[in-house]
Design goal:
The protein has 329 residues and is α/β, with parallel strands linked by helices. It folds into 2 domains: 137 residues, NAD(P)-binding Rossmann-like Domain (Rossmann fold), CATH 3.40.50.720; 171 residues, Dihydrodipicolinate Reductase, domain 2 (2-Layer Sandwich). Strands 3-4-2-1-5-6-8-7 form an 8-stranded mixed beta sheet, sandwiched between helices. It has a 6-stranded mixed beta sheet with strand order 10-9-11-14-13-12. The radius of gyration is 19 Å and the shape is globular. It is an enzyme of class 1 (oxidoreductase). Its EC number is 1.2.1.11. GO terms for molecular function: aspartate-semialdehyde dehydrogenase activity; NAD binding; protein dimerization activity.
Amino acid sequence: MAQDGYVVAVVGAGLVGERLVSELRRREFPVSELRILARTARTTEIAGETFEVGVAEPEAFEGVDLAFFAGTEGEKGAAVQLSGAAIERGAVVIDNGSDFRLDDEVPLVVPEVNAEALDSHKGLVANANCSTTQMVVALAPLAREFGLKKVVVSTYQAVSGSGREGVEALENGREGVYPKPIERNAIPLIGSIGEDGYSTEETKMRLESRKILSHPDLEVFATTVRIPVHTGHAESVYVELGREVSKEEVLEAFASAPGIVFSGDANDFPTPLEAAGEPGTFVGRVRVEGDRVGFWCVADNLLKGAATNAVQIAESLIERSLLGQKARV
């Protein structure tokens, strides 16, 4: 680390990469040097700044303190190919993709919920799936105060969750992005269907929520749906708690929870339009019957669902004196 900040690399210049740069600037993260890396070298404008984009290769991580990976997932993706090289050169890696989220050796972190999981990092930290992130932010105060038994969630997810191709499918009618047209439609399939009948997005929500909340047996039944909204995921969530509660108790739990923007006014409900461009998780439409709670939550999937949460992880690493330390066993 230089005296005036950290050397930071952002791998990937897509929608999430752009938001990462914007969030680093907006949150005034201490950066002494910002490197943008991608498959090919080029000059490009990201978040209003002009960058000389470097090639994402092992040598590009020399001297890097912190590396955000926001590119392609899978065996040919940058995180799988290059995160090890970055860590070997002294960087802490925060990966936005799904490749390492369920690895027992990798903390999966939403700072408002489980920042303490960072204490065991070995150089790599996973950023949760966008739909999972906003849900666990809202579930966490209920889990802490009352206990969780079961969660049923239906999502209404924006096309920007599919990257630029998703936006083009909505704005320009681009074909082949979704199995059916997205304009004036709702598509109850995000990812592919597994043998159990759940989509990959639904399975992510179940398994990631269990890990983040440290509740390996939590019942999570998810139905994930893509809708013709540009930015902002919405979710209808039904929860069965560990005990009966009053509505006042639930409202207080939401109102005092970190990361939640909450209004107890039933008529003051959040929508994706208001959440777009905002870093928080918005909660409204709360209903309580005995040990059952229903609520509506919304968040910007590119911010709290990706870039904001990643930068918050980096801030938490600094707060816990963990940046630059691999905490190797």
